[in-house]
Amino acid sequence: MNSHAIAAGHAERLATVDALLPEMPALEPVEGSVSLSATAGDSAAAGLSVRTEAGPDSVDSPWRALVEHRLEARLTGPRPEAALDALLTRWDEHLKTVAPPGDVETAATVVRPSRDSPGSAELLRRGFAPVLVIAVRPADRLAVTGPPATPGVHIRPAEADDLETAVGLELELQRYDAQFGSVTLREGAEETITADLSKQLGRENPTLWIAELYGRPLGMVRVQFPGDTAWIRGRVAAEKVGYLSSLAVAEQARSSGVGTALAAHAHQVFDECGTDAVLLHHALANPRSTPFWYAQGYRPLWTYWQRRPAVP
Ligand SMILES: CC(C)(COP(=O)(O)OP(=O)(O)OC[C@H]1O[C@@H](n2cnc3c(N)ncnc32)[C@H](O)[C@@H]1OP(=O)(O)O)[C@@H](O)C(=O)NCCC(=O)NCCS
């Protein structure tokens, strides 16, 4: 079966799985990619393995291994899980030739539609774990249930002299998320975060807001408006896509409604600019963020299955 026939079968299968998934055309090789294919009885898989590398000081280095091998897969036939299993065998053979065993700065990652569940057991058996999720909140979700509005929470745009607060909250968030494998805190993290956040303060059109509780800054939310989300918008079948970059509440203020107030504020500003859907990443094993986001009207769209090191 050729890769276009496999992609067509894949698209047909997924059309009934999740209406918010984008179109998934046949895989096109890119520079440095390796094409793979496999069959299992009447089922077939096409894959593309792409290697990327990030410097330890780059803005996205906290969210990834420095070297990542990412597999994109198209699966068709009556047993997609068997097709994926056979593809993973091919991929493992390839990874053994390019990734040093035991190097924790290498990761093998398969980003799969969350609701396309066949193959999950096969991934687990090969040492992959579902680490990260892209969750989606369509704009027409109804208001959410949550804690009663906390009196005294005041939300305002971040100003230049909020830098220390914002960096402190972001570091606290990243330290917390690092426990669940979705963040790697490296030397120089504070400097990288400071450089990134300082560009987002005091803006005429704010993208970062601070929550004060009785005058003390204890939370923040950061967003990207639809004009700035080209890097992720292709992940969802929607026109105007917003991205919620981070939400953090200081440990002493958690569970008291500050996070809900910040999320409601972010959703209101997204609504005001006509956003169709909001995406965000969260660590699946985070016992605070996972239930929080699903109570705010999000649900999983893509799941990152990761094995790190790429070759154990
Ligand atoms: C995730 C996080 C931002 C949530 O913010 P928060 O201020 O703690 O959340 P809120 O208080 O607004 O909402 C949770 C509380 O709402 C209440 N609540 C939730 N659903 C409710 C409902 N249906 N009815 C009434 N109350 C409800 C509960 O009191 C709940 O607290 P609990 O989980 O301890 O029981 C915050 O915990 C945090 O910063 N965590 C660490 C960093 C992190 O994980 N950030 C997210 C990265 S993606």
UniProtKB/TrEMBL annotation:
<dbReference type="InterPro" id="IPR016181">
    <property type="entry name" value="Acyl_CoA_acyltransferase"/>
</dbReference>
<protein>
    <recommendedName>
        <fullName>N-acetyltransferase domain-containing protein</fullName>
    </recommendedName>
</protein>
<keyword id="KW-0012">Acyltransferase</keyword>
<dbReference type="GO" id="GO:0016747">
    <property type="term" value="F:acyltransferase activity, transferring groups other than amino-acyl groups"/>
</dbReference>
<dbReference type="InterPro" id="IPR050832">
    <property type="entry name" value="Bact_Acetyltransf"/>
</dbReference>
<dbReference type="Pfam" id="PF00583">
    <property type="entry name" value="Acetyltransf_1"/>
</dbReference>
<keyword id="KW-0808">Transferase</keyword>
<feature type="domain" description="N-acetyltransferase">
    <location>
        <begin position="153"/>
        <end position="312"/>
    </location>
</feature>
<dbReference type="InterPro" id="IPR000182">
    <property type="entry name" value="GNAT_dom"/>
</dbReference>
